[in-house]
Structures are given as structure tokens and as C-alpha cells.
Amino acid sequence: MKNIVLARVDDRLIHTEILTLWVPEVRANRIIIVDDVVVKDKFRSKVIKEMAPQGLIIHVYGIDRATEKLKEAPSFDGERVIVIAESPLVFEELIKRGIKINQLNIGGMGIRGERKAVARRVACDTMEMEAIHELIKKHVHVYFQTVPTRSSEEAKKYIKE
User: Fold this and answer.
1) pTM above 0.85, yes or no
2) How far is CA 111 from the centre of its chain?
3) Residue 103's beta-bridge partner residues?
4) Helix (H) or strand (E) holding 84
């Protein structure tokens, strides 16, 4: 199985904070974006992949292919992977499919659709709240943290049973 050093929910997927703060913080050399919609958008996928600075590999996969890839042995010694998705629902599904995730960082989930504010820079709809609750029940450490230089907050503080 791949060495996942950061599992993150971020509805912007990849952006400057990921590349300049999180990648060095966890010493990642590969990012896997898991998104069934983005993988079908060839232009957006290409733009995301081209954001990679030298020494960082970025892939965009749908959930089926991501599951296969994450179950593979590391591609090289020292491989360190960040997995990013727009919703905690994706991580709940990855865990159901056998991917080991001990911690989930929720970095940014903006208000849109049925989402309501839960905490600073975090908004969830009912299904996302249920997914976070289920992840916590499965002993996944779920926390809110936008950047590594800011303190984190425990998600369970905001999740009602």
C-alpha cells in the first residue's frame, strides 16, 4: 500500500497553500487527487498536473482507479503521498474499499449547495457531517486545519451525534 502522509479534504483540490506549505511540511513527493468529475475534464486535469514543481508528481484519478493505485506498493523508495478530495465522502468510500487512513485533515470546505457553516472555513451538508461522524467512529483522527502553521481543531468538537 502507498505511504499516505496526508489525507486532506479541500474543495479547491490543489493550490498554492498545498504546494508551498503542506508538501514541504509532510515531505511529499506525490499527490493523488481523487475526483470522479475532474478526471473526466481533460483540460482541468492537465492544468492540475502542470502545477507540479520539479520533484513532485501529481495524478488525477476517479475513485475506482485511485483505490487500485493506493493499494499498490510504493513506486520508489521514500515515496510519500498526499491524497486530496473535495469531500469527506470520498475518504469514507476509500476506507470502505480497504485504504488505510489514520488521520483526515479538513482544510477547506466552502459554503455551497446544502452546506452550512460548521467551523471556520468548513461547511458541510448532512451527508458530509454523517461521513465525518462515521470516520471518527472508525477511529480516524479527523481535524480541521487550513495550513500547517495554524493550530488544528478536533472535528468531533463540531460533530453532533
Assistant:
1) yes
2) 18
3) 141
4) strand 81-85
